[in-house]
Design a protein that fits this description.
Two copies of one chain form a homodimer. Chain A has helices spanning 29-38, 53-59, 73-79, 85-94, 139-154, 208-220; strands at residues 12-17, 48-52, 63-65, 95-102, 105-110, 115-117, 131-133, 159-166, 175-182, 188-189, 205-206, 228-232. By secondary structure, chain A is of the alpha+beta class. Chain A has two domains: 13-61 and 137-245, 60s Ribosomal Protein L30, Chain: A (2-Layer Sandwich); 63-133, CofE-like fold, CATH 3.90.1660. The longest helix of chain A is centred in the middle third of the chain and has 16 residues, at 139-154. The first copy, chain A, starts with 11 loop residues before the first strand and ends in a 23-residue tail after the last strand.
């Protein structure tokens, strides 16, 4: 035996933070979230605040107007007859590598190492037709800044996850995953842990931050303006970076 | 506008069902789950009961003793020096196709169409060293049988998800996903839905059953004997099959 003890979890609760107004650059998102949290009983120690990437990106000004974008020849090709070549041009600028494409679909690796549709560039939930929203430049740093403010406002330690909806290689539909974390250990490492029969566990790492992001999505909803939720009762606090959730290139079997 | 109204979700609660004993073939899992649920306030209408695949498989006798398995030449190759060729032989018998391999890792498509490590064949949490557990033959049917019994026992309508931990192509760590469902619409289809600005949503399908399975995993834990949880407050009831969560072959860009 290794002396490792997996925590025995109690009830987990997921609480939507509703009524956040349309966000623009330099809005005080921390205060808005803190006020909405106060209306539903307030933040408690060890709560995880999950915030949609789009809310973060808007506040950070990561918005591009398509009328200002001149598409390259490659963007025109990848857009095909049904896509907007200006949108694809923005995707290419955000991408480190195009992993797969089938016009107008582009699956790309972002500057952060995430593999996702459109390099995370999205046109929905923007106030103007002509706008697309990019991923934050450094989602861990975004999470840290938000966490520092929330800890100050609430007077207790909380974690923050910046989430987004990603597709999966062999499964239909998106699930929300963690793009940035602060005060969170994103992987639960069971290497060396034993099952109830004393046998070493095979599935050795659980992406708990992704599961928490997905749980939060269940109350957030894309068609409503519910860009954040509190997840209470999960014991995932610690230090870490969302980069731990990225499969290292040398272990990637799928590109 | 389409008249579509995405439901506005309230608080979601995830409640572990603890103290389920080691399961063997023909155990009455429905009664065991119902009794444990009664100890935490009982099942309510529209609850989703998430049950680990391994619990279902044990009750259904989907267990193989490795001493009875004669490995083929191919199994010996794929096992490499570090794997157990008998274990790999069982994987090959469960697999419709080997998608990738790097000894001793085998990623395969199961008879159900799921792409996952070891075709879902797992040695952890088995009472004997020599045993491996296979996926249920028809996880939707397993979920339906369990749901019928639970509805009878509880006297109210509940949904059931059979879950398992799957890895992902470009992300570290596993998340729990739905292998079988009953009384559940596994995908929330937002095609035609509009965002708060009246713009059509791009991420058109959300794999809500996978997010519910992942939320349940947060309280289940592999090292404990907590093979099930109640997820309360999600509005995903309806008719459907976990096969809806499988990416159709013609849309699969990654094999």
């Amino acid at each position: 035996m290794t002396g490792y003890e997996e925590p025995s979890p109690a009830v987990v609760t997921v609480i939507p933070l509703r009524g956040i107004p349309e966000l623009v650059a330099d809005d005080d998102l921390a205060t808005l979230l803190f006020e909405r949290a106060s209306q539903v009983g307030g933040l408690r120690r060890a709560d995880v605040v999950v915030v949609a990437q789009k809310a973060i990106s808007k506040v950070e000004g990561r918005v591009v107007r398509l009328q200002d974008v001149e598409p390259s020849e490659r963007a025109r090709e990848l857009a095909g007859p049904d896509g907007d070549p200006r949108h694809v041009e923005v995707i290419l600028r955000e991408a480190r590598e195009v992993v797969r494409s089938r016009p107008p679909l582009v699956i790309a690796e972002t500057r952060h190492g995430f593999v996702c549709a459109s390099a995370g560039v999205d046109a929905s939930n923007t106030p103007e037709d002509d706008q697309v929203v990019l991923l934050p430049l450094d989602p861990d740093a975004s999470a840290r800044r938000l966490r520092n403010r929330l800890v100050d406002l609430a007077g207790c330690d909380v974690g923050v996850i910046v989430s987004d909806s990603f597709g999966r290689a062999w499964r239909q539909g998106t699930t929300d995953v963690a793009l940035g974390v602060a005060g969170i250990a994103p992987l639960l490492d069971l290497r060396g842990a034993r099952d109830a029969h004393g046998r070493e566990l095979v599935s050795t790492q659980i992406a708990v931050a992704d599961e928490v992001a997905g749980a939060a999505e269940l109350v957030m909803g894309k068609a409503h303006q519910v860009p954040a939720a509190i997840v209470r009762g999960v014991d995932i606090h610690g230090e870490g970076s969302a980069s731990e959730l990225v499969m290292p290139r040398e272990r990637d079997l799928f590109r």
